[in-house]
Structure formats: C-alpha cells, structure tokens
Design brief:
Blueprint: H1 22-36, E1 44-48, H2 50-53, E2 64-68, E3 91-97, H3 106-116, E4 117-128, H4 133-137, H5 156-165, E5 168-176, H6 185-195, E6 205-212
Parallel strand pairs: 1-2, 1-3, 3-4
Antiparallel strand pairs: 4-6, 5-6
C-alpha cells in the first residue's frame, strides 16, 4: 500500500474543464449533491477547492457558503487548505470534491477539516477509484503525467478508514461510473446497471457522505446509588437496679 503522504509536486486542478470528461464527472456529482443538500442544516458551509466551488448548492438550507480556493475565480476566500482561516467547530458542512487525489498530505487536509467542523457536522468527499478503468489508465506512460491520472487516487475503503479514525460515521458511499465514457452514455449506463452491485467496487468515482460523531472521553457516572445495608447501632443506656 502506497503511503498517504508524498513529496512530489502534484498538479492540482482548479476547474472541471481541466479533467478528461470533467463536465460529465461534475454533472454526476451534482446529481448526488442535489439529493443531499436539502438534508443539510446549519449556518455555514465550506466548499474546499476550485472543483467544489463550481458545484451548485443553491437548494441547500445553509445560506452562508464560503468558497475557498487560490486560482478559481468563483472563490470568495483565498487561503491554504492546510491552514483554514476559521475557528474551531465553526462550519456545519464541508464539500471536498477531488481534493484528496491531488494533495501531498491528505491526512492533514482531513484533520484541518475536522478541526473547523462542528460536532454532528457533515463532510462530503468525492474522488477517483484506483481499482477502476480510470485508475488502470494511470499506468499508461503517456497518461500518468496528465490530468486526471497524474493524481494519487485512494480507494473508498481507505478513505472510510481515515474517517473512522477521526470518529466519523459514513452515512452513504456510492461507487459508480464502471464505464467512464461520455460518448454513448445511455449504452454504458445500461451495461453498468446489468452488472448490479457486483460492479460497484470497480466504479471510477465515489461519493461519500460522513457525519462527525463526538464521544465523551470519560464515562458518565449513574446518578443512582446502592442503598447501604442496615447494621445494628449501639445505643448508650442505663439499667435501673431494683435496689433503688
């Protein structure tokens, strides 16, 4: 298993137009995001990265939405993803679209997101699955240096393991796009549906929704107490003699 941290200089996409079939990928994510946005509640939402900024979330109940990136023109906050300019537990939901695939230290990204996310807050993660046709294409010499194959793809199970370490409960994990071809899409969709759940682990894309769970460090003691056993109590008394 390759280490999560890397010293290589990875090219990070800031727009879906930089990715192969990027428009179709964003549309597939948008369809799933539209289903989840009405279920999110709170005051502040963070869209991390340029790809997240281009996703639409106008049907979300969270009105104040911060779009953080360096190069994407849709951003309203410019900052480093490894050092978010927010207070601890101040964000209600975070969208991280394909950011872990193109960062040198995904653990640091997740820990920083966990720092600013409130208890019971939501995180939505998307990315490419290396155990798929898209992942296998990165082995080709003429593609591994170009987007999207130049990234470091991680399996959805590994992402879920990282989330479990941070005490997150995975609510949904959708793996799809067994055939990541944009042309003749109805035909590929029909073939994918014919495989059923058997082909899901080899889907090129994953869509994970997790919720932050915080557990107390100390056990809560019960309020009730055991009753004491009755024991005889010595009482001082004087015996009156008959001679008196």
């Amino acid at each position: 298993m390759k280490p999560a941290r890397s010293e290589k200089n990875l090219e990070k996409p800031h727009s879906w137009s930089q990715l192969k079939n990027g428009q179709w990928v964003s549309e597939s994510i948008q369809t799933r995001l539209d289903e989840w946005c009405p279920k999110l509640f709170g005051y502040h939402m963070l869209k991390l990265g340029g790809l997240s900024c281009e996703l639409v979330s106008c049907n979300c109940n969270i009105q104040h939405q911060v779009q953080l990136d360096i190069q994407n023109p849709l951003h309203n906050v410019i900052a480093d993803a490894y050092d978010l300019p927010f207070l601890e537990k101040s964000i209600d939901a975070v969208i991280v679209a394909h950011q872990l695939d193109y960062c040198n230290d995904p653990h640091s990204i997740l820990r920083e997101v966990d720092r600013v996310l409130i208890d019971d807050g939501y995180i939505i993660l998307t990315g490419f699955n290396p155990l798929s046709l898209t992942g296998l294409a990165s082995l080709m010499p003429w593609r591994k240096h170009n987007l999207p194959w130049s990234g470091r793809m991680f399996t959805p199970n590994r992402i879920k393991d990282w989330l479990s370490v941070l005490n997150y409960q995975v609510i949904e994990c959708d793996q799809y796009a067994l055939f990541p071809m944009q042309k003749y899409r109805p035909l590929w969709t029909w073939l994918e549906n014919s495989f059923g759940d058997c082909g899901a682990p080899f889907g090129s894309l994953y869509f994970i929704v997790a919720r932050k769970r915080t557990y107390p460090l100390k056990p809560i003691k019960p309020h009730w107490r055991l009753k004491r056993r009755l024991s005889p109590v010595g009482v001082n008394y004087r015996v009156k003699s008959d001679s008196q």
